[in-house]
Amino acid sequence: QVQLVESGGGLVQAGGSLRLSCAASGNIFSINAMSWYHQAPGKPRELVAQITSGGARNYAESVKGRFTISRDNAKNTVYLQMNNLKPEDTAVYYCKVTLRTGVYSVSDYWGQGTQVTVSS
Question: What digits encode the pLDDT tens for the residues 72-99?
């Protein structure tokens, strides 16, 4: 059994910063990619940023230069540093972790979501 616990969301003024964390625990053999998605009301869930096991990163165009994804493999944790936040960044943020619970078992796991609200 695997659990993801997110933290770090909240209310911030435009131009401010927040740092999200997502820690994975449980029966983990190895972790592949770690990602952050967001979902605004009435909109589909969208990829914000991803980091591979090798450290390669990719970002949505809307957050390039403002958000930074990182991971601590010793802690099975992924972070999202969000700077210069804009009202349009308001959404529920979810982490997704692709991991193995065994040599032949690969699955995606999702966090519970954390609300980020940016006021103008």
Answer: 999 999 999 999 999 999 999 999 999 9
Q: What is the pLDDT of residue 102?
A: 86
Contact status, residue 36 vs residue 89, Cβ threshold 8 Å: no
Instruction: Provide the pairing of β-strand 114-119 with 10-13.
Output: parallel
Return all residues near 110 (Cβ < 8 A) that are at least 6 apart: 4, 94, 95, 96
Mean pLDDT (whole number) for 38-48:
96
The model's confidence at residue 104, banded by pLDDT at 50, 70 and 90, is confident
The residue assigned the tokens 């449980």 is: 26
Query: Nearest to residue 99, comparing CAs of 25, 44, 6, 28?
Result: 28
Q: What is the token pair recorded at 43?
A: 């909109």
Distances in whole angstroms, Cα of residue 23 to Cα of each of 4, 49, 79: 5, 16, 9
> Which is it for strands 67-72 and 10-13: parallel, antiparallel or unpaired?
unpaired
